[in-house]
Amino acid sequence: NIAQRKVEAKQTHFELVKLTEDTVDPKLWGENFPSQYDGYRRTVDTERTRYGGSEAFSRLDADPRLKRIFAGYAFALEYTEDRGHAYSLRDQDSTARVRERPQPGSCLQCHASVIPAYRKAGGGDVMRGFEIVSAMPWVDARKLVEHPVACIDCHDPATMALRVTRPGFLNAYRGYMTTKGVADYDPNTMATRQEMRSFVCGQCHVEYYFRKPDQVVVYPWSRGLRIDDEEAHYDSLRFSDWVHAETGAGVLKAQHPEFEMWNQGVHARSGVACADCHMPYMRQGAIKISDHHVRSPLLNVDRACLVCHSFPAEEMKARAQTIQDRNAALLSRAEDALVGLFDAVKAAKTAGADSVALAAAGRLQRRAQFRAAYVNAENSMGFHAPQEAARILGEAIDYARQGEIEALRVARTRRP
Amino acid sequence: NIAQRKVEAKQTHFELVKLTEDTVDPKLWGENFPSQYDGYRRTVDTERTRYGGSEAFSRLDADPRLKRIFAGYAFALEYTEDRGHAYSLRDQDSTARVRERPQPGSCLQCHASVIPAYRKAGGGDVMRGFEIVSAMPWVDARKLVEHPVACIDCHDPATMALRVTRPGFLNAYRGYMTTKGVADYDPNTMATRQEMRSFVCGQCHVEYYFRKPDQVVVYPWSRGLRIDDEEAHYDSLRFSDWVHAETGAGVLKAQHPEFEMWNQGVHARSGVACADCHMPYMRQGAIKISDHHVRSPLLNVDRACLVCHSFPAEEMKARAQTIQDRNAALLSRAEDALVGLFDAVKAAKTAGADSVALAAAGRLQRRAQFRAAYVNAENSMGFHAPQEAARILGEAIDYARQGEIEALRVARTRRP
Amino acid sequence: MNPRLPLTLAVCLGILLGAGAATFRYAEGFSYFSNDPQACANCHVMREYLDSWQKSSHHTRAVCNDCHVPHELVPKLVTKAENGWNHSRKFTLQNYPEALRITPHNADRLQHGCLSCHEDLTSDIRDAARPGGSVHATDITCARCHADAGHGPRR
Ligand SMILES: [Ca+2]
Ligand SMILES: [Ca+2]
Are A360 and A402 in contact (CB under 8 A)? Predict the structure, then answer.
């Protein structure tokens, strides 16, 4: 009855547990905020969508071309579809990329509630601890953490306000803002609340690499957030993720650049935050809360889209899928083009061409691979920035085919 | 002042001139509707935007690659940027495509207020007259008309209601609707008012060709409105616009497919009509009228966009231009790829390859040319459907480079 | 001090500044002091907002003033005096944009309007509810997601 609902509304949360910077276990936070905790726990659900969803199927089986595209890299061992936050630590533990390849502690920055461990290792200094833990072998670092992505990764335990804790983000974004003429940028004090609703996600949903030799996690934003800026950053360092096993070219693979891709889209431009779609408000009794079941908005179109778009849920879902279908078709073309390039380079080699002669083809492969991998790794199948994703794939196709042409020319000159 | 404004609010128009199906001269319509006539007359203005506007500059000079792309076709003689409706007849009279090449009467369907002439030629039957006039040589047909696109082309003189008069549109759209299971579709009786606000434009802003041998204007919509559907229509008829002078391939050139491209975009999906952006309502004292100065909305962002988008005008203009910049860059890549293909085919010919050996390369050129020309001819530089335009260009690049590769292979086998 | 003083002052302010009392009254400037939505629409520019409001989910729940005008007496009169001045002047001079856009100041008032009815419901999602209070530059604005609450879909 109304009277009772009113009471419910007045006293929303009771402080049953005192939350501190060392309260990592979400269960304890759940004592104070049961509704959000319920949502958080539901991230164990597994439901599939046309291109995403939360079922950890093998991407390598779904698209065999990837085995050749990642030839010689750990991703050729195992590469699965991502799923809910509750799995973030488990899935890292179990992947062949960790079991069969030595990895540094850096991997943990985005898969575990790791800040307290950093603070401890750094003797109170999180930044130092971050560097120390990153440099440790993964197996040793892993012993320092026990929880996956959890409350404390996005919230200040004292105020519950959003906050950004990941050193990788704090460092990279500060650097990026200097290119915009802003010095010493600190999101936790300078960002608007609406910006924070995306920054907390940008802590992890970004392209990254491990700086050599200290293995520190770096986001390649020194020149900007667009793919071309990130590529320029890598080129300036002559950095490669690995040497391609079929062609011998030094190439790059992008990982989940959701934050960067979103930044190029019209939603970001309109001030629409990650949380607006992935954590839409929901009514719980007499109050509104953020849905902490972070997942595909296409499993939740009514709440995720319809407040802003006054069209039927089916129509909005269809719009998103039309966008994804177009990009998926272009992505497939780009991968076919890459495979064509591999074959041409191998043929040139058999015809006697050496790596010097094939250097130009290798540079084109590098450009093409980074672009195709970028859209493939960006988990919205281009929805976050439909035209930008298509533009990137158009360039990927162009560079891959040019590389194939280059290899053919080289092969011809080598023919006996 | 306010007193006067209150009167205006109530006042409607006065019928000074009796308008009939033979009242072609817009000046006479202007007697009854001075405000709309004023707007209409302002279509003589010439103001340029980044990619469009109303200054009739030469597209061939702006982008020399087009001379090679259209080698052997009338468009290589003269191809200018389009401008206001007031020029529609004049610009056809003066183009080298008419002065230096024989053209059929069909050209007039979209450049003149031609319906009364059709009715006369057909002895009362517009459809018959349309076929008769289309078959006439342009010079003779030209004598039958005197006004450019005018009021009577979009309005019923008796009711002022919008109406569709162009036989090319009526026939093609009826055919298209049958693919959707609707028989005998007639926009003038079955379309909603909002649909009519786009259909009147779709009468002319569409891809078309002249049916052989009777020269009747046909819109290639038998399979649908997407570029792939239009291409399938041409392929099924083995139809080509011309034989490319450098390669000998039978190729296609698209003309102003604004209506088709718009149909693939999110604006069309949201029910936003051509007139909403190109003829936005404007306040005239206390009443609102449609701005008949039909032009680039980027010259009129306040009225054209802000009624729906609550962002500053500068921001909305920047969004449109960001979209256009991305597509312009891809279009440039596609044209470079085409030029690369031309060179490779010519090299293969010198190496002794004949047209049979180069047939496959020719088929790929046909696909690539139609796609690149499609986006180039679509006058919004892809704004009407940003991601679809980028997708089309991605495919254009792929086909052009594949054609180049094919030509290289052929050349190799031919080498002595 | 005379409790009715602020009121009297505010009214006078509005009337005097309001592009001259004559224009002001003729333009139903006094509509600003009524709660009747029709009153707002005495200016034809406002009519489309009356129409859209009637189609909105709130037409049975809230009138213009509930959302756009503070409910406390003095701020209410000041608001009305201020907007009365702005709107009457611009209406007379006809120098207002084709697409009206709420001013930042009126957007704040709007936010308060929402809260006057939905404060409890939204107690958890607003900074005010945080132990630490407002720690970021801005709080969440309702109209960003619910722009159609008062006038139905914008398009
Ligand atoms: Ca997933
Ligand atoms: Ca133009």
Answer: no
CA distance C63 to A180: 45
CA of A295 to the centre of ligand 2 (A): 45
**Mean pLDDT of chain B, nearest integer:** 95
What is the DSSP secondary-structure string of B119-183? HHHTTT-HHHHHHHHHHSBHHHHHTT----S-GGGTB-TTT--B----HHHHHHHHHHHHHTT--
Residue C132 to residue A290, Cβ atoms within 8 A: no
H-type alpha helices, B285-312: 301-304
For C101, name the nearest residue in chain B, comparing CA atoms only. Answer: B310
- Are C121 and A10 inside 8 Å of each other by CB? no
State residue A33 phi and psi, 5-degree precision: -130, 70
Q: What is the pLDDT of residues B301-360, one digit of tens each?
A: 999 999 999 999 999 999 999 999 999 999 999 999 999 999 999 999 999 999 999 999
Number of H helices, E strands in chain B: 21, 6
ipTM for the predicted complex comes to: 0.93
Q: Are A130 and A170 in contact (CB under 8 A)?
A: no
- C139, burial (CB in 10 Å: exposed 0-12, middle 13-18, buried 19+): middle
- C-alpha separations of B234 from B73, B227, B229, B366 in Å: 18, 11, 9, 11
Query: Is pLDDT larger for residue C138 or for residue B93?
Result: B93
Question: Which residue from B311, B333, B391 is facing A398, i.e. has the nearest CB?
Answer: B333
Q: Residues A78-104: pLDDT tens digits? A: 999 999 999 999 999 999 999 999 999
A194 close to C (CB below 8 A): yes
Nearest to B328 by CA among B390, B398, B278, B238: B390
Token output for A176: 């990026």
For helices B227-236 and B359-377, give the axis angle rounded to 10 degrees. 140
CB atoms within 10 A of CB B280: 22
pLDDT in tens, C15-66: 444 444 434 444 444 445 567 888 888 888 888 899 999 888 898 899 999 9
Q: How far apart are CA A41 and CA A55, in angstroms?
A: 16
Q: How far is A305 from chain C (nearest CA, A)?
A: 10
Residues of chain A neighbouring B409 (CB-CB closer than 8 A):
408
The number of C-alpha atoms within 13 Å of A252 and in the hemisphere containing its C-beta is 30
Q: What is the mean pLDDT of residues B205-232?
A: 97
Closest-approach residue (CA) in chain B for C44: B286
Asked if A302 contacts A313 with a C-beta cutoff of 8 angstroms, the reply is yes
- In the numeric block, the tokens 């023919």 are attached to A415
β partners of residue B217: B210
C19 alpha-carbon distance from chain centroid: 20
Mean pLDDT of chain A: 95
Residue whose pair of structure tokens reads 């009364």 in the numeric block:
B116
A16 touches chain C (CB under 8 A): no
Q: Which of C47, C49, C98 to mutate to test the interface with B (most CBs of B within 10 A)?
A: C98
Q: Do A326 and B395 touch (CB under 8 A)?
A: no
**In angstroms, what is the span from residue B83 Cα to ligand 2's centroid?**
4
Q: What b-and-e string marks burial along B152-175, b requiring 16 or more CB atoms within 10 Å of the CB?
A: bbbbebeebebbbbbbbbbbbbbb
Candidate from B272, B286, B306 with C-beta closest to C99:
B306
Burial tier of B293 (Cβ tally within 10 Å: 0-12, 13-18, 19+): buried
Tens-digit pLDDT profile for residues A209-226: 999 999 999 999 999 999
Query: Which residue is closest to A333 within chain B, CA to CA?
Result: B398
Reduced to 3 states, what is the DSSP secondary structure of residue B210?
Answer: strand
> What tokens does A276 get?
């607006």
Residue type, A239: F
